[in-house]
Amino acid sequence: MTENIKLIYSAAKVRLGFLIMLCALAGFAVTPGDNLNGWQVLVLGITVLLCSASAGAFNQWYERDIDACMVRTKKRPFVTGRFSGSYYWPGAIIAISLFAILALAMTTNVMSAFYLFLGSFCYGVVYTIWLKRRTWWNVVIGGLAGSFAVLSGAAAVDVTVGPAGWIIATVLFLWTPPHFWVLAYACKRDYINSGVPMLPTVFDERITVWVITGHVLALVALSIVPVFYGLGWIYLLGVTAGGIYFIRETVRFHIKPSVPRAWKAFAASIAQLGLMLVAAVADRIILA
């Protein structure tokens, strides 16, 4: 039983699911309006987690052939055979996603549920099926999945979302490409072997580091702007600390690109996003 839970946790990318859930909660936190009841916020978090986990499971099921070509992913359950590649999986995944979307619509409003649907569709279909194997723009457009999670949380409070919600969603859109590009640089051989086009495998090193650096500078600068739309000192402290850390590691990677420095920039990207999202939620809880 414990082993099956671990396999499901891995196949559904539940760690990523919690991060996407935090994106939705941050969207809720930065949006002024009538507070949702505690149980409504709980449903928001759970439904976003369910949809994200379902999309993650579909991603691993669909990509089991290319995952087998990559050192980083060759031990995933659908690759090793611990989970079969049965077509029952997509059916179950779609059913869970539809249940979550319907539950959110009934608990909050249709717009919040619609953004949740768009996030799942963007990751599961647009990114996984249409773009990932075809173009290095895959993670650029696929980055909208995280943005839609923010919009879902914000729309649960106010269907117009509001300036801070749109800004945080844009930050997520800018964050996703450099996060995955430094990973692709560190695992370049894997992406070449699997035939997945990514910025570091398509363009030379000079272009790669400049594009990554530009994205990071833009997203860090934009992440500060919500302070002018009502967020307080807790949020400012979180985005400043995370932004400085992310910029520092990106600049070091820019000056002297290497696999170890790419991994450090990758870790910094996660820290920056985590600090921003947690600070947004904490700002709402403590300073409200």
Strand percentage lies at: under 5%
Helix content: over 70%
The tally of helices reads: 15
Number of strands: 0
Q: Provide the residue-averaged pLDDT.
A: 95
Which ranges are low-confidence, i.e. pLDDT below 50, for 5 or more consecutive residues? Answer: none
The whole-angstrom Rg is 19 Å
Backbone structural class: mainly alpha
Q: N-to-C terminal Cα separation, in Å?
A: 43 Å
Largest sheet report: none
- Please provide the ordered H/E string of secondary-structure elements: HHHHHHHHHHHHHHH
Shape: globular
Our count of domains comes out at 1
Note down, in words, how this protein is organized.
The chain contains 15 helices and no strands. The chain has helices spanning 2-11, 14-29, 38-62, 64-67, 77-80, 88-107, 110-131, 138-142, 144-155, 163-186, 188-194, 199-202, 205-224, 233-255, 259-287. The longest helix has 29 residues, at 259-287. It starts with a helix and ends with a helix.
What are its keywords?
288 residues; mainly alpha
Chart the SSEs and their pairings.
Elements: H1 2-11, H2 14-29, H3 38-62, H4 64-67, H5 77-80, H6 88-107, H7 110-131, H8 138-142, H9 144-155, H10 163-186, H11 188-194, H12 199-202, H13 205-224, H14 233-255, H15 259-287
Helix pairs in contact: 2-3, 2-9, 2-15, 3-6, 3-7, 6-7, 7-9, 9-10, 10-11, 10-13, 10-15, 13-14, 14-15
Compact summary:
The chain contains 15 helices and no strands.
